[in-house]
Amino acid sequence: MSENKGVPEKRARIVTEPGSLAATGGTVSEDVDADRFDRQKRVTQWDQAAIGKQDVLVIGAGALGNEVCKLLFQLGVGRVRVVDFDAVIEANLNRCVFFTPQDAKEKALKADVIARKARQEYPHTHVTADCRKVEDLEEHVFQKSTAVFGCLDNLGARLHVNAQSYGHAPVFDGGTTGFYGKLQVVSAPSSCIECAMSERDYDLLWKRYSCVGEAIDLIDPKAPALATTTSVVAALQVNEFIKHALGQPGIAGKYVHYDGLTHETQAFDVPKRKTCPVHG
Ligand SMILES: [Zn+2]
């Protein structure tokens, strides 16, 4: 059933909360239903132009990368570069909104698929597929970005993204395993992902890690993954990005843990480590 049933095609201009676009004299389309972004423009202190100017790097086009990209495209972010060297497999399809069985059959590259779908459905976003390992990206790719999303499944790549981005762009780093998820926001001069690493973490770096940074059973390297947890964590990541883009206070320096079994979400301060190699 359409949510607009019974509502006239042309609506009168609606003045919403003080400080909203309408109240501050911003331009509101006469035919608001024809404006893809109309409903989000009604959010207090929304600035669609600020969202449109964003030039975002999404590292990892797996489950989290799919969800993060979907939200960025829906918001109307101007430019998105999707980085992933991997190809689509059937086991991705339980939680990756852009992938189809045909993509898995063709072994299509994940970043290419997302860029192709975006061109078809989201004309407000210019999407670039970058089918390289994150370690192969040039420094300027990080430096020119206005925000970086970590949508990765291993700690080594996460630390690389953290080090390359620090001081240039905020990092919204997500991870999931089963019903559990994490979000860490890094924005200089805040603490960073490496600040939170212990000696034991360094010792274990050579091992495989789960998405939330804990060592997993090496006999079964396939981390448990649920579409529901993925959606929650991606939403947390992009929500923090929205606040950053709109110039609102965020949670830089914090680590958020989400527990899908109890629905408890806790935010912890990550102390800035003086000996951290990223910022000294
Ligand atoms: Zn640090």
Topology summary:
Elements: H1 38-41, H2 48-52, E1 55-59, H3 63-75, E2 79-83, H4 101-105, H5 110-121, E3 126-130, H6 139-143, E4 147-150, H7 155-165, E5 171-177, E6 180-186, H8 199-204, H9 227-245, E7 254-259, E8 264-269
Parallel strand pairs: 1-2, 1-4, 2-3, 4-5
Antiparallel strand pairs: 5-6, 6-7, 7-8
Helix pairs in contact: 3-9
Zinc ion is lined by residues 191-192, 194-195, 273, 276, 278-279.
Which outline best applies?
globular
SSE order? HHEHEHHEHEHEEHHEE
The count of strands amounts to 8
Bound compounds, each kind once, are:
zinc ion
Task: Estimate the mean pLDDT confidence.
Answer: 87
Main structural class: alpha/beta
- Main pleated sheet: 8 strands, mixed
Walk across the major sheet and give the strand order.
Answer: 3-2-1-4-5-6-7-8
Are there runs of 5+ residues with pLDDT below 50, and where? Answer: 1-16, 21-25, 215-221
Question: How many whole angstroms does the radius of gyration measure?
Answer: 20 Å
**End-to-end gap:** 57 Å
Number of domains: 2
CATH superfamily of the largest domain: NAD(P)-binding Rossmann-like Domain
Number of helices: 9
CATH architecture of the largest domain: 3-Layer(aba) Sandwich
The level-1 CATH class of the largest domain: Alpha Beta
Helix content: 25-40%
Work out the strand percent. Answer: 15-25%
